Amino acid sequence: MSRRRVLALAARIVRQFRRDRRTLILMLIAPILVISLLAYIYRGATHHVSLAIVNSGASPVAAQLVAGLTASQALTVKTMSAADASRAIKRNDIDAVLTLPDNLSLTGSTPQTLTVTLEGSQPNTSSAVLNALNQALPTTIVRALNPAGVPLKLNPVFLHGGPQFDQLDYFAPTFIGFFAFFFVFLLTSVSFLRERIQGSIERLMVSPLSRAEIVLGYMLGFAVFAALQSIVLVLYCVYAIHIHYTGHILLVFFFTLLLTIGSVNLGIFLSTFARTELQVVQFIPIVITPQGLLSGIIWPLSSLPGPLRILAHVMPLTYANEALRGVMIRGDQLGALWLQTGVLAGFAALMVILAASTLHREIA
Amino acid sequence: MEEDTTDTIVEADQVSRRFGSIVALERISLSISRGRIFGLLGPSGSGKTTLIRLAAGALSPDSGTLRVLGHIMPNRETTAHIGYMTQAAALYPDLSLRENLNFFGALYNVPASELTARIEAIADEVGLSDRLNSPLQTFSGGMRQRASLACALLHRPELLILDEPTVGLDPVLRRSFWQRFRELADQGRTLIVSSHIMDEAERCDELAFLRDGRLLATGSPDALRVQTGCQDLEDAFLALAEALPAAQSGDRR
């Protein structure tokens, strides 16, 4: 194993891709574009949330609450009768109904509970309603009404579905892993295919370069771009669209890199079965799309039908997603993610072996 | 690499190789001495490239042994002493000539302190000094061939294996390539050059005529003339080919 040869190979890959500006920009911009689009869809939709308030009593506190909520920019508020509201929410004309008790008062000693009925079929709308209410109720209104602060609790009742927290917080960690996996796979298979097409692989094979050095050099070269991509994406998620984030940032890169090692070698391995770049692209629906759909990025594994859940559990991205979510949402330490670490390391090792075995070197 | 006492650089003993049902080489035996230019001649599909890939260590023989510098090929340590120029340029078109040379220099452990000077020198030798920093995709076919030769020469190999190095070159460039080959041989390097152009055969010290994976004859151009009684090497080849019992037509790969 020669460090110089490995570094020369890695440096060559970095140099080649640095020159391919369009690919480099795509690798950095595409994930940001997609996640911005999702952020807009899930969070930008807040001001379209419509809320009906049923206030049949004559409580002055309730009247002030209505006024306060009406003033909230995040909500479009209508007051309705209970019957109208019930009809409207079933027709999906409104997203939620807030029912105020007839005798709402904040002077008692027991916490008051407000019932909000959510249409619920779109979790993102539900969470937007709850976000808006949670922001509007305690901060502006309750404090003005009663600085002593009898707690006012929201009791969400879902017409459909169940309570969900912000979907974007749930998505974002997995996107870091998904894009690293996707781009590194694509770039490795294409650049390895090019080595075969232009014949330079034969030159590498008859050089003193060993199989291990080829695999390591490729890994190192592409790790640079995977790292760059995840740094940009993590920073963008945390600082630009304010994704929930508690864990250790180095752990995010650790898991991304571990996934990337598997991805590079999967690319080397599968490029053997492609003769053109178009054929490499044809691997995307086979290798990338199922993992994108089943690895729990959008739908939790528990919501998948049995056989698909089993399938999901053999996908490396599933474990990467669990790990990245664990780190970013729950602030997990490495110790709590030993299973995910082990599976990802095992996947990487398996891919390294497969990749090395396809490098048809007949040299002892 | 230890010096081989016998000065036999390449020795093939009953080497056969097939690809599926196609016999690419059948029981080839030959030996190549230090400092010679050894020409492999034959039509396309005769097994030239297969023999060259076996000698370079890109393939293993199915049977028989092929020794290069005293070691049975394929052998990774031996590859450090071989310069291999494939038929296509097989370099990185998006990188500059300097970057390509730097890369291959590192692969072949050219001392880092010497690398820059060697790159300048080799680029000068192949007449590409002014294009060192241009990406190869801007090169013409002939320039790419020269770049490819430069990459094969950079680590000063003892054995140079060149697969149709002059194909597509204009006569001026072809002549300068052959002058360069002769200089290298005079320095004590050994060259295996494949070609299907008979007038290049004249410039070799020794020849092997290949057809359908079989060795028709080996020897110096003069010896082959004497053997066949033909003045022209092309006639000599045809005479030898006719003497061969009709074989199944093999494909090069």
The rounded distance between the terminal residues' Cα atoms of chain B is 31 Å
User: Strand arrangement, largest sheet of chain A?
Assistant: 2-1-3-4-5
The number of helical elements of chain A comes to: 14
Largest interface: A-B, 28 and 35 residues
- Tell me how many strands of chain B there are: 10
Q: Can you summarize the main beta sheet of chain B?
A: 6 strands, mixed
Task: Please state the CA-atom Rg of chain A, rounded to the nearest Å.
Answer: 26 Å
Strand content of chain A: 5-15%
Give the structural class of chain B. Answer: alpha/beta
Question: Percent helix among the residues of chain B?
Answer: 25-40%
The residue-averaged pLDDT of chain B reads: 88
Detailed description of the structure:
The complex is a heterodimer of chains A (364) and B (253). Chain A is an alpha/beta fold and 364 residues long. Chain A is built from 14 helices and 5 strands. In chain B, helix 8 packs across helix 9. Chain B has helices at residues 48-56, 76-79, 97-107, 112-125, 141-153, 171-186, 198-201, 221-228, 233-243; strands at residues 8-19, 22-33, 37-41, 63-68, 71-72, 82-85, 159-162, 190-195, 206-211, 214-219. Chain B is α/β, with parallel strands linked by helices and 253 residues long. Chain B starts with 7 loop residues before the first strand and ends in a 10-residue tail after the last helix. In chain B, strand 1 (8-19) and strand 2 (22-33) form a beta hairpin. In chain B, strands 6-7-8-3-9-10 form a 6-stranded mixed beta sheet, with helices on both faces. Chain B has a 4-stranded antiparallel beta sheet with strand order 2-1-4-5, with helices on one face. The relative contact order of chain B is 0.19. Chain B is globular. The A-B interface holds A 2, 4-5, 7-9, 11-12, 15-16, 19-20, 198-200, 202-210, 361-364 and B 53, 56-60, 74-77, 79-80, 82, 84, 86-95, 99, 102-104, 106-109, 112, 135, 151.
